[in-house]
Amino acid sequence: MKVSESWLREWINPEVSVATLVEQLTMAGIEVDATEPVAGAFTGVVVGEIVAVEQHPDADKLRVCQVAGHPDGGEIQVVCGAPNARVGLKAPFATVGAQLPGDFKIKKAKLRGVESFGMLCGQTELEAGDDDSGLWELAVDAPVGQDLREYLNLNDTLIEVDITPNRGDCLSVRGLARELGVINRQAVNPVAVQPVAAAVEDTVPVTLQASQACSRYLGRVVRNVNVSAPSPLWLQEKLRRSGVRSIDAVVDVTNYVLLELGQPMHAFDLAKIQGGIIVRDAREGEKLTLLDEQEVTLQPGTLVIADDDAPLAMAGIMGGLASAVTPATQSILLESAFFNPLAIAGRARNYGLHTDSSHRFERGVDYQLQREAIERATGLLLEIVGGEAGPIVEEVSAELPQAPQVTLRQARIASGLHIDMDAATVEDILTRLGLEIADHSDSSWQVKVPSWRFDIDIEADLLEELARIYGYNRLPTRVPDSPMAIKAHTESRLPLAQLRRHLISRDYQEVVTYSFVDPADNARFDPELSPIALKNPISADMAVMRTTLLPGLVATLRHNLNRQQSRLRLFESGQRFIPGADGVDQQPTLAGLVYGPLAAENWNEQDRTVDFFDIKGDVESLLAQTGNGVNFSFRAGSHSALHPGQCAEVLADGEFIGFVGAIHPALQQQLDIPAGVFVFELALKPLLQARVPSFTPLSRFPANRRDLALLVERELPVESLLSGVRKTAGEYLSDLKVFDLYVGKGIDPHRKSVALGLTFQHPSRTLTDDEINGFVGQVVEHLQNQHGATLR
User: Fold this and answer.
1) Which of 9, 128, 532, 761 could be cross-linked to 13 through a Cys-Cys bond (beta carbons 3.0 to 4.6 Å apart)?
2) Average pLDDT score, the chain
3) How far apart are the C-alpha atoms of 68 and 75, rounded to whole Å?
4) Would you say residue 519 has pLDDT above 70?
């Protein structure tokens, strides 16, 4: 929210600089994002009036104007190309010698042969607004010749504050002034709001059907208004400096009251209302065209303001176009209401909207403010557009909030803030904040919360208020002295951090991607599952919850490839969201991706691209971190997104826990990735189960190795051979490895040669050759019988 320093000082004017004001607000928990002057740096600009206009003799778009207002008197000739230049218009006039923003100095000039002694300015030339459609039109009563900075009070500062969601009471000039009054121990000068006596008897009946969502609604008829009457310059300037565009007097007044008091309001064209006002929930299939000309289909549960025929507005969000005030409007109905924050929260986002009204109602608006706001708006309207006001029609339900009482204990202040705050200081702070002390004893206070503070509900909230106003910087700094017992470390469980560190040690980089993904991307990598659709997605390409981590990793790869990064090794740990009969199953998962050269560019490294066995080796090293707490194995597998010949399933004690493989070439081409991409995705739970370390003494006796070269069927997985060897080689087999694989000349094309190295070692004696030959014979016999293997 933006507010000008001058407007704020109308409410409270402490004798401190704007820099101190900003610091005070920041230290009170109201973050100030920026401060900036309301206009650029310029001098020599006065209020000028065009007294005569002639067409330029040699340019269709230029006019020769005679301008009054020069400090030396008389009329000055100025050539101007603005489309709104006309006789009687008052606009900023930069005289010869004036200095404009951007170090631009006004000099005497000739434009197409006609002399010009100055410049008529628009808002953008003075950096005083965004309107670049023509000259800045000043009020008709602007004093000709007066310095523009003095006339418009342009020696002012804009303060942009970022209000946290719990402090909706500060989304107004009055709210910020209240905070500064508390900090500076100074009374606030509120605007005098006088009740407007009814001049006509016209009313519109109000019915609260959704009384829990809207517990107070006020309406007032104002007849015979002149909507074409311009808003006064002071009103337009305050709106402009708050970032609000001036539209017409009626809309400007409602926006002004919103900024000044914090109460959103709306004005309906009375002639377009059929019957009475009904506050109700939207009905199935109802449609409403909003003020921004967007037609929406109203969802059940959306609160609407309707008449006897149809909805007129989305309550607390935006009015409807059909009942909007237009230049032809002669009578209006002013609305001022209190809506329950829960009835408005999230509704605007459901329709892709965000308005100043919804922003405030979602955070909570003072439920005692509505009558004061409608009286304030009525008074301003009668002053600007004329008319006669009717009586206020007010409907209040039993669901209107009541001021809560919160107990504050003296002992809790000492334990929570670690300061000894005396009773007088506590009561002074609470009273200045507008809280009422209903009862006080030696050890506690009963505090009544004002209607504008929706964020105070429990004792901790009062402690926060005491700390804010007392000063966070004055609170003592202490080292915690509570006993901190070291938690027992369970060695049978592997910490996720260790797996992360291991992957990082293998040159992987951790990424964190969104859990929301594009439905099309998710379908490419996991077409078998229908993902959970979000009711309120951030965007269309983040509309479903991921069922696999691969879309995020591949999107990160493509992002880096577009930025000339040709080598990537990525991993991510996160949740997969699997729909099921019992709801959503959130499965912790670890996934990785490798692409490009095996090693970073180096004169001493072989230039080779990663392949399937590189990433499989990374997965094997990751599984080894468990210390064989779980029996892991691999087998040939298939996956719709992976290459059919380069895909392996990962098993834990025979149960499928994930896969490793190459992205399918067709999918790779579809994603416009030039080279092969290799990925893995594993369930995290089995990876966190570790074997408890135990000591096994090293044998002092020599080991013996026997090598076997076996001919087996070409399609036989080597894991089947290794498994058979482990089963039959006996308990003294200490190591088993594959050290050679051969296919080609001299071997049946349907068979392959696998060379195995078997190492035997006894813990307490030396094994004899006969014993080792017996073990090897058992192995060979088993492999011959089980797999048709023959010794080469």
Assistant:
1) 9
2) 92
3) 5
4) yes
**Residue 27 has what DSSP assignment?**
H
The token pair that represents 599 in the structure block: 């090693």
DSSP state of 609: B
Map 341-402 to HEC letters.
HHHHCCHHHHCCCCCHHHHHHHHCCCCCCHHHHHHHHHHHHHHHCCCEECCCEEEECCCCCC
Contact 779, 725 (CB under 8 A): yes
Q: What angle do CA 280, 283, 287 make, to 5 degrees?
A: 105
Quick check: 708 and 755 in contact, CB under 8 A?
Answer: yes
Residues 159 and 32: beta-carbon distance below 8 Å: yes
Per-residue exposure over 383-411, b if at least 16 CB sit within 10 Å of its own CB, e if not: ebbebbbbebbebeeeeeeeeeebebbbe
How much is the average pLDDT of 285-293?
A: 92
Could you tell me which of 525, 597, 547 has the C-alpha nearest to residue 567? 597
Report the pLDDT averaged over residues 454-458.
92
Q: Report in angstroms the alpha-carbon separations of 746 from 286, 331, 750, 783.
A: 81, 103, 12, 22
Question: Three-state secondary structure along 409-449?
Answer: EHHHHHHHHCCCCCHHHHHHHHHHCCCEEEEECCCEEEEEC
The model's confidence at residue 329, banded by pLDDT at 50, 70 and 90, is: very high
Q: Is the pLDDT of residue 306 over 70?
A: yes
- What is the spatial distance between Cα 47 and Cα 143, in angstroms, rounded to a whole number? 7
Is the CB of residue 668 less than 8 Å from the CB of residue 593? no
* 176: exposed, middle or buried (Cβ count in 10 Å: 0-12, 13-18, 19+): buried
Q: What does the chain come to in residues?
A: 792
Tokens of 546: 């991921």
In the predicted structure, residue 629 carries a pLDDT above the cut 80: no
The amino acid sitting at 755 is A
Burial 82-119 (b: 16+ CB within 10 A, else e): beebeeebbbbbbbbebebeeeeebeeeebeebebbbb
pLDDT at 207 over 90: yes
Instruction: Name which of 130-134, 337-341, 430-434, 677-681 the model is least confident about.
Output: 130-134
Question: 423-432 and 173-184 helices cross at what angle (nearest 10)?
Answer: 160
CB 11 within 8 A of CB 174: yes
For helices 612-623 and 496-505, angle between their N-to-C axes, nearest 10 degrees: 140
**In this model, does residue 699 exceed pLDDT 90?**
no
Lowest mean pLDDT among 423-427, 464-468, 481-485: 481-485
Say how far apart CA 262 and CA 189 lie, in whole Å: 16
Q: Tell me whether residue 207 is exposed, middle or buried, using C-beta atoms within 10 angstroms of its C-beta: 0 to 12, 13 to 18, 19 or more.
A: middle
The DSSP symbol for 473 reads G
Q: Which two tokens stand for residue 565?
A: 């990064």
Q: Is the pLDDT of residue 50 over 70?
A: yes
Please give the DSSP secondary-structure letter assigned to residue 29.
T
Closest CA to 370 of 347, 393, 399, 341: 393
Structure token digits, residue 450:
């004002």
Q: What is the identity of the amino acid at 221? A: V
Angle at alpha carbon of residue 524, lines to 520 and 528, rounded to 5°:
100
- Token representation of residue 692: 């408890």
Residue 324, SS3 per DSSP: coil
Q: Which residues pair with 313 in a beta bridge?
A: 305, 319
For 653, left (φ over 0), alpha (ψ -120 to 50), or beta? Answer: left
Amino acid of residue 318: M
The closest of 511, 581, 521 to 546, measured between CA atoms, is 521
pLDDT on residue 420: 87
For the stretch 575-602, pLDDT in tens is 999 998 888 899 999 999 999 998 888 8
Which phi and psi angles does 688 have, rounded to 5°?
Answer: -95, 0
Eight-class DSSP state of 290 = B
Residue 114 scores a pLDDT above 70: yes
